[in-house]
Amino acid sequence: MDKLIHLILLSENLALKGTATQSSTYDTWAALRAIDGVRYGDASTFCSFTSSESNPWWRLDLLDVYDISTVIITTRSDCCVDQANGAEIRIGNSLENNGNNNPICAVTSGLQRGYTITYSCGAMEGRYVNVAMSGRTSHLSLCEVEVYGTENLALKGTATQSSTYDTWTAHHAVDGVRYGDASTHCSFTSSESNPWWRLDLLDVYDISTVIITARSDYCLEQTNGAEIQNLALKGTTTQSSTYSTWAAQNAIDGVRYGPDASTHCTSTSSESNPWWRLDLLDVYNISTVIITAHKSHLNAASGAEIRVGNSLDNNGNNNLVCAVTPDPLSGNTETYSCHGMEGRYVNVILSGDKNNLTLCEVEVYGTENLALKGTATQSSTLYDRLPVRAIDGVRHGTDTNAYCSTTQHQSDPWWRLDLLDEYEIKSVIITARSDGYLDQTSGAEIRIGNSLDNNGNNNPICAVTPVFQHGYTISFSCHGMVGRYVNVVKPGLAFTVSLCEMEVYKTENLAFKGTTTQSSFTWVSQYAMDGQKYGTDTGSYCSATLYESNPWWRLDLLDYYNISTVIITARSDCCVDQTNGAEIRIGNSLVNNGNNNPICAVTSGLLAGHTISYSCQGMVGHYVNVVMSGRTSALALCEVEVYGKFWGKPAVNVYLKESSQCDVIWPTL
């Protein structure tokens, strides 16, 4: 096996480390102003601006080579968005033609006054980031350019392999050199059965990406076919129709980009509601779906629904929506977070009349339910309802006896999961019985720790379960509690504990850390982050405003985060129009109650009781707003979940004027 490089997103704006230049400078609008850390302010003070000229450009020198995942651009708020729209973002290591010949990450589009838009570059390597208006005579104006990179965690770890051929050691695959003399920079096992290579990261990480570089001399068969768990490669595909030779299976051939699209991409005929379906051949908790579109036909994948589930009703197109691809797509490859949605089938469907659906690659990655690795025990067992049934991976079934655990009726009944190792636990998910007996799940303590004193029931409490509804699943945030054992115990005399599924994850819903408010009150704002998506009484677990102009709901995260995903659940009884069409805004400002912050997404495609995930690609913010702009309506939310990574607190500069007024300036992130 050859080079293995493992990446994870950094929460650092690399642009702040670099230097900037541009093709010309209008008045005092210097290039450096686009990397001053201030997105919004007086344009003449905080924005860069070239003269009107042919092919104007702006360049950032990062002073080192990085794998660049994201570029974020903010435009002027006073005017002139044409001076930023249509610009090419180029990344690379060459200064030929002032860097403007480097590969293109994206072309800016959709920018409006004062807007911030994120462009995904998929770990492109480069020292220089250029923004260039090619083939135009124009000004180029940028109010902020942010660049986020990735860290190769492999460089921190140690490597070993099943055997070593000559001097081709395992460590060569994590030496940071992709290309060079193969015998010096590549790892190589002997010819043997089931050869393997292993990296020990020396700590536990949420793994986002694995990148492999093969030998440049020959022997590709020594790298191809190795498993890295893109679940799609294990599956089979079909689609609603096939255009020419653009077969469904082409989208899971492991090739994102190839010289012949008809060989490596799939396409349906032009038809109403075209769809593509992946059968994973087993049920998985799906964390991520990555879609690569045809670079010349982005519209043929724009606005498509990604659906995940176990049903083949309507060819699988009635399963729950994970995400909706942006319309228009801004780049070839986009990543969508599904946060552990359970399913065997992954569908991509383009609703509407007379469309082609074209996909060049679909990749599917799963989350790890730690409970499936562990062992379970309980204080007693009723009939054959064994403790292991609560970690069998089945939330719901026709026979409760076959997939739920139950203790006997006793004092202080308990159930315990041994994870067989110590973990930082972010969330615990419990599913109740669907046939009744809800008191057997409600009111139980979830305890996490490393002690077996009192059978583990003295460990610290993560949460106490509320009153469940039949068959409902509720998520509890444990905020990184450390432990090997997870207990569910119901203190008191003469109780029973019954669990239909217990799941344990290392991801965290940030919304549970925050506080909420909204523009008016029908149902309380806090209900939208109580961890309960569904119930019989909508008013007891959903938030709702009055019927009014521009209703809004706001979450204060109480700190600064890189937000990757916002997940919204609509009412199950009616009124999806009270959730669809809302803007999700993320930022640090409370101007207009936070409703002027940049837009992550606009909700769409929600049906009654449905949950949809919206990708925000690392937008930085303290506040998450959901607002119905320009409408008179009520706003109803049954659950808002927010996922991301901690950013940190910015410095505060306090300037006191002699006039006794105090200006407190928070540098914009």
UniProtKB/TrEMBL annotation:
Give the organism the record lists.
Triplophysa rosa
SMART domains, A to Z: FTP (SM00607)
Top-rank taxon: Eukaryota
| Record flagged with keyword Metal-binding | yes
- InterPro entries, A to Z: BG_Antigen-Binding_Lectin (IPR051941), FA58C (IPR000421), FTP1 (IPR006585), Galactose-bd-like_sf (IPR008979)
Keyword annotations? Calcium, Disulfide bond, Lectin, Metal-binding
Q: How does it assemble?
A: Homotrimer.
Is Transcription regulation set as a keyword in this record? no
**Family annotation (PANTHER family):** FTP DOMAIN-CONTAINING PROTEIN, FUCOLECTIN TACHYLECTIN-4 PENTRAXIN-1 DOMAIN-CONTAINING PROTEIN
What GO terms are given for molecular function?
fucose binding; metal ion binding
What the protein does comes down to:
Acts as a defensive agent. Recognizes blood group fucosylated oligosaccharides including A, B, H and Lewis B-type antigens. Does not recognize Lewis A antigen and has low affinity for monovalent haptens.
One GO biological process term is: regulation of complement activation, lectin pathway
Know the name of this protein?
A: F5/8 type C domain-containing protein
Give every F5/8 type C domain span: 219-367
Family affiliation: Belongs to the fucolectin family.
